[in-house]
Fold this sequence. Notes:
Elements: H1 21-26, H2 46-54, E1 58-59, H3 60-63, H4 69-74, E2 79-82, H5 108-119, E3 123-128, H6 139-153, E4 156-160, H7 168-176, E5 181-183, H8 193-196, H9 202-215, E6 220-227, H10 233-245, E7 250-255, H11 272-285, E8 289-292, H12 302-310, E9 315-316
Parallel strand pairs: 2-3, 3-4, 4-5, 5-6, 6-7, 7-8, 8-9
Antiparallel strand pairs: 1-2
Helix pairs in contact: 5-6, 6-7, 7-9, 10-11
Amino acid sequence: MFDLPIVDSSKESGGCCSSAPTEAATKPRRRLPKWLKRPMPSSEMAFTSGVIDDLNLETVCESAKCPNRTECWAQKTATFMILGNVCTRPCGFCSVPKGKTETVEADEPERVAEAAARLGLKHVVITCVTRDDLPDGGAELMYQCVLKVRERTGAAVEVLTSDYMGNRRAISRVIEAKPDVFNHNTETVPRLYDRVRRNAVYQRTLNLLAQVKEEDPGMATKSGLMLGLGETIEEVIDTCADLRAVGVDMITIGQYLQPSSDQLPVERYVPPEEFEEIAQQCHKLGFSMVASGPFVRSSYHAGEMVNDMTTGTVISAVK
Length: 319
Ligand code: SF4
């Protein structure tokens, strides 16, 4: 789930998917290197913004302060975030609000489908906040969203899910909707989970991705990592190897950017050349699609990533 500096290019802001205010508050924010400058918001975003507002939907683009929002929204692309705008997990990197969760809205699948239709999307990405307060983690609503979007638009559908606390029945329910891509982000290397992705379990993420392949071997699986949180390249490659070992087809690797001073600071800005090197190494591991670059996010050019996979393009270093 994952980002960004949209307005003030001299300061970072951050991505997709919590809280270590003390650590964050004690480190000064760094200036962004030149390869991380992004365009200012433009009037071309208005149509997408209007659809989202009119249908009272949430997007991870806004909630995670994604740096690609100007580009994506101008191209009438957005990633819908269901089950409210409040998450039950305290991840250190994510700016989605924490606290009292919102009521599940039974008509949300219809509104997501309507938005996808109005935007003319051919590839629809649906993500969700983590809802550990719900018995099924919100899997049934995700299932309904996939069906509604497909029925209304005929578009390909990609889900970017929480880990459902490892609830195999909940995960199966989402698989039953037959999304074209089942995406679940690893976010970081296992050594950093306690700091970056508290209350998540690395092995649980691998188990989820393995379960998708066990239950539907033909379903494309995808995962993503953020760099710049203190990991080493060797750890990144080891993590990617673990993902390949459970059959993951597509991998996205991008730069972590601190969404606000409440989130973890950036430890390092990884230069584009290193992203390219990591892409090459992931290619050797056998992924069908690799997207590795500073602004790569799980849902950035998601439809094109699927095309890259199906046409045999193995490396897509989006910069
Ligand atoms: S990359 Fe994904 S989350 Fe970011 S603006 Fe684009 S669609 Fe939204």
